[in-house]
Specification:
Blueprint lengths: L15 H43 L1 H17 L1 H13 L1 H30 L17 H12 L2 H9 L2
Helix pairs in contact: 1-2, 1-4, 2-3, 2-4
């Protein structure tokens, strides 16, 4: 039986190969992620531009209203206005999609109101019938209702079955 101290040990550099492979894998992962985030960033940038152009085409008042709101916020409370502007710039892709949604919604709303507004301007009203009011409840009806509530035959039924 050989002593562990007397056994021939391998090269002292055998740990170098796994360490080098580990660093190469980390470098490759960072390189791929950096290229992927570049692609995603440019995709989001194109989506933002397309959403803003579509919003301008659909209803430019949405964007001008948002910019006017930001300007009023800066004039009223400068700190919050500047913070709001910074958050708008950072979150521009989300803001552009929200503005596009608002433009689409206002277009649908205008179409709906425009279609229904024509009936109001033509003064076309539907006919209706007058319905007579119900007679007021008399004292006798109130007394009959009170008698029904005081009727304890229901309780007597359960008392009779318990025996």
């Amino acid at each position: 039986m050989a002593n562990s101290f007397t056994q021939k040990r391998g090269s002292s550099l055998r740990w170098l190969l796994p360490l080098a492979a580990f660093f190469v894998m980390i470098y490759a992962t960072i390189y791929v992620l950096a290229n992927f985030t570049d692609i995603v960033f440019y995709g989001v940038l194109l989506l933002t531009a397309a959403a803003l152009i579509a919003t301008l085409v659909i209803d430019r008042n949405v964007i001008t209203g948002y910019l006017a709101y930001m300007w009023r916020m800066i004039k009223r409370t400068p700190i919050f206005g500047i913070l709001f502007t910074i958050i708008t710039v950072i979150g521009l892709p989300v803001v552009s999609l929200v503005l596009l949604g608002q433009a689409l919604l206002t277009r649908k709303l205008k179409a709906f109101l425009g279609k229904n507004d024509s009936a109001i301007t033509k003064q076309e009203f539907s006919s209706y019938d007058l319905v007579e009011d119900e007679p007021p409840i008399t004292i006798q009806a109130q007394q009959a209702e009170a008698e029904l509530l005081e009727d304890d035959r229901y309780d007597a039924y359960f008392d009779a079955t318990d025996e």
